Amino acid sequence: MNFDHRKRKDIEFVKSQLPTNFIGDEFVIFTSADMPIVDHPCKADSVSFLICIKGNSELSINLKNNNFKENDLFIITPGKIIQFFNYSEDFTVKCISMSPEFLEDSVKGTRNIVPFLLRIMDNPFVNLNSDDLSSLLEYHSLLARKVRMENLSDRKEIVRGLLHAICHEISAIYEKNHPLEHLKRTRKEEIFKAFMTELSKSYKISRSVTFYAEKLNLDSKHFSNSIKEATGRLASEWIETYIVLEAKVMLRSTEKTIQQISDELNFANQSFFGKYFKQHTGISPRQYRESRQTDPNFVL
């Protein structure tokens, strides 16, 4: 696995709030009671393990809504657009977040890591039984103590060792709950998954349904019908929603000008981009940016 070595904005944000709960730009651990819940769409640039220990929240992952509830484990992977909303007042999450490089170094040599990653991609949620919940919370508590011991010799290696063990625990949990042989999709679901993968790569190139049908070597009508039957939404609606979410992320989490965002999303000009954004949100890009206080791009 190859990852680019970027500065982790989400980890940087937590560092500014909880200065003893991190290791460089690579690893951070916390409880959401210590942090504000950010309810705008954000693109993850780290890997995060989240355990809901109280309450519940609706959660959008790449446009798909889910219910994140007590005793659920949720795993976020880089590139996912995440948004929490309609969360209960007592919603509390234990979080372990790390750069992909830190995770990769921690699990080097681990057998069956590819099947584990496949399970996570298809099933980011798993409901924990009492024993599994207790075990993961013990790891979280132990990790938090070790991370705060800044003078501990070989602190990073100890944390990596514990993280390696956690990944084995989670892999075993997934094996019980989501065996690979049960992860079979219908043809229409396969088309939708391929469409979303292609959309995540090509949304800056084209907003045309025909473009994506051709990318998947499908007739436009068959492609459109498959997406509609698999999801209840038109392919054009998925494209529009994805573009608007990306625009929101850039407006909220970067210092790019609206013209630069318009160019990056391949609009003919800033005026056309503004009309497109307002059509789908009810406000202009400038109003959206100015209506929100500037927070770092963090996934919680």
UniProtKB/TrEMBL annotation:
<dbReference type="GO" id="GO:0003700">
    <property type="term" value="F:DNA-binding transcription factor activity"/>
</dbReference>
<protein>
    <submittedName>
        <fullName>AraC-type DNA-binding protein</fullName>
    </submittedName>
</protein>
<keyword id="KW-0804">Transcription</keyword>
<dbReference type="GO" id="GO:0043565">
    <property type="term" value="F:sequence-specific DNA binding"/>
</dbReference>
<dbReference type="InterPro" id="IPR009057">
    <property type="entry name" value="Homeodomain-like_sf"/>
</dbReference>
<keyword id="KW-0238">DNA-binding</keyword>
<dbReference type="InterPro" id="IPR018060">
    <property type="entry name" value="HTH_AraC"/>
</dbReference>
<feature type="domain" description="HTH araC/xylS-type">
    <location>
        <begin position="189"/>
        <end position="291"/>
    </location>
</feature>
<keyword id="KW-0805">Transcription regulation</keyword>
<dbReference type="Pfam" id="PF12833">
    <property type="entry name" value="HTH_18"/>
</dbReference>
